[in-house]
Design goal:
The structure is a single chain. Helices cover 36% and strands 14% of the residues. By secondary structure, it is an alpha+beta fold. It has a three-stranded antiparallel beta sheet with strand order 1-2-3. A hairpin with a 5-residue loop joins strand 2 and strand 3. The longest helix has 13 residues, at 12-24. The termini are far apart.
């Protein structure tokens, strides 16, 4: 299985690039299997303890931008997420 070479100090857009590289190197079934095993363990800055959402936040960079959504292919800022779910 492929490993992620991303740290929260880097922009979240670079994490999406890493995920796209992994996706392009696997067939769809293997990528889904990889996601099931590893998406919840992506490196991340510490999320606020009081955040509650109805969709997953997979990772956050140090600037507060988050990889979100069921497919893990959207970016939202933590402030927007917290405001929406307040």
């Amino acid at each position: 299985m492929k490993n992620i070479n991303w740290k929260p100090e880097k922009p979240i857009s670079q994490l999406i690039e890493e995920l796209e590289k992994i996706k392009s190197s696997m067939d769809e079934d293997n990528f889904k299997c990889w996601c099931d095993r590893f998406m919840s363990n992506l490196p991340s800055a510490q999320l606020p303890g009081d955040i509650r959402t109805q969709y997953p936040i997979w990772a956050m960079d140090n600037q507060g931008f988050c990889l979100v959504g069921p497919e893990g292919d959207e970016i939202e800022h933590i402030d927007s997420i917290m405001e929406f779910y307040a």
